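Q: What structure does this chain adopt?
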Amino acid sequence: MKDHDNARMLAFAAANFRSAWTVELLCLLQAEPERTWPFADIVTAMRASELVVQQGIDALVGAGLVVSDAAGAVRYAAPASLEDTVEQVIRLYKSAPDKVRRAIVRANSPSMVAFADAFRLRDEK
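A:
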């Protein structure tokens, strides 16, 4: 993946995901796109709290990448126009998870990043 593509994928992740847990959830759901996951099964599979899973589902529904039914079951449902982007984000996350996490944190916690940058001794790209 080229640097330009990485930058686009990082921007997409930062704009659509509040935490790395959301990316983890996307990876889980996208791996079995035909499966409808009951909420409890997602919590178990991710070993995450119900709150974290619900926030991830909300973010992915908002981004148009999953659908949720009345019972709370969730299924991967990215439109064809975003499928390539999703695959590239997942690929980038699997190869450079810290890079994706940092992009998400920077976008969602600018004051925390500014505080941490004040103590940075060297440039970490």
